[in-house]
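Thread title: Can someone regenerate the structure for this chain?

I was given the following input by a collaborator and told the matching structure tokens would be attached. They weren't. Posting the sequence so someone can regenerate them.
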Amino acid sequence: MRQRLFIGGSWVEPEGGFYDVLDPASEESVGSAPEASRDQVRAACAAAREAFGPWSRTAPEERAAILGRAAELIRERSVPYAELAQAETGATTGTARGMQVGVAAARFRRYARVEPGEWAIPPQINEAGPMGRAGVMGALAVRQPVGVVACISSYNNPWANAAGKVAPALAMGNSVVVKPAPQDPLSVYRMAEVLEAAGVPPGVVNVVSGTSVEVGEAVVASGDVDMVSFTGSTAVGRRIAEVCGRDMKRQLMELGGKGAAVVLDDADIGSAVAGIGTTFSFYSGQICTAPTRVLAQRGVYERVVEQLAACAGRLKVGDPREPDTVVGPVISAAHRERVESYIDIGRKEGAVVVAGGERPPLDKGFYVAPTLLADCANDMTVAREEIFGPVVSVIPFDEEDEGIALANDSDYGLIDYVWSADVARAFRIARRLRAGGVGVNTVGRNMEAPFGGFKRSGVGRDVGSYALHAYSEVQSIVWPG
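Best answer:
Regenerated them for you:
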């Protein structure tokens, strides 16, 4: 498969040629992805700008109907789409079907319903003065689309992540230029095909890809782009923010995480271990919301380490297409080396490897064994930097206040977790944690709850109705009552 770019409603040959997309489980080619030139990126942004006006004036009900058709088409084609996502990302079958393609369909379906785009503000009585006579002033707040949105998605979940940006942006009347991650862009092009078939007008959705950083830089710097929605590393997010700041472009940034899992001495250890253990299996740890930094109170510390080690040891690592595989590969050889280098740093800094730590004995694929590092300190590199792999660090603490302080002693603040049998205690601690979200006795998500981070974990909130706010500007209309 030689994939073409999607620009202005047409499938366009890439001026930069093609590159191979590799299956991280087999190291074989999945297909050829297009390498866009700077001129083609500019053309995509210009097409989005031209399409924005008519699309923004389209009735919300019409936009919703298109998103609903897109959701249905994704659902109908879910099996081949999941197979492609699995080949590109190395996800297990359940993850590819349920958490990648399934979530993408759900997100288009979620934004296929029309929500109020305006709301009345209570009238205000004004005294007579230099601005005029006394009177009553009415007001209305109206959500308006931002304009052209650059959607730069992550490699760990090409379907759900891109859909979480594109669907609410389109629902609000924005046009989009999507720049998928270079490792797995083919799924995003299938999404563009779905939207085209669902009736999205030419230019409203554009997709450009490439391995060169110039592709992303050209999208962000384009004068036709009004907003950048980015999911990825904090380092790249900083560079994007610098460019956006020069032109005062809107930003929505979902960046890195180093989630603290505070396990208190009255916690259900089995529940805590089951939740924390998802770091080893879910996307092979390549997820920013993972509870990778475990803070275990001294009374349960040994039990937590022992049970987490047992959990890591019994998870099958291997071909993600096998039904009993729990841990698939990481995305690339380069990323495997990065994860392994962190494990080595942990050893050198005094952490004890109690599970994993060695490369699995598999002939092909970019695999990392689920690894547990115990006896860690919060100033160790493995406790401070995002590893983005199946690696968990465990740190002991004594008093409750110490655990809270350790959790907050981080550059990141995306999602933290608290396990305690005393729910009131857990909620009290949750309110003291400097994170955009806190899971109490769960790693599950409420998909209407606002999602985003404190500190270097991001800027802004999306998901549910919060995404409609994120992809809109609020306009005030005032009149004499």
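The mean pLDDT is 97.
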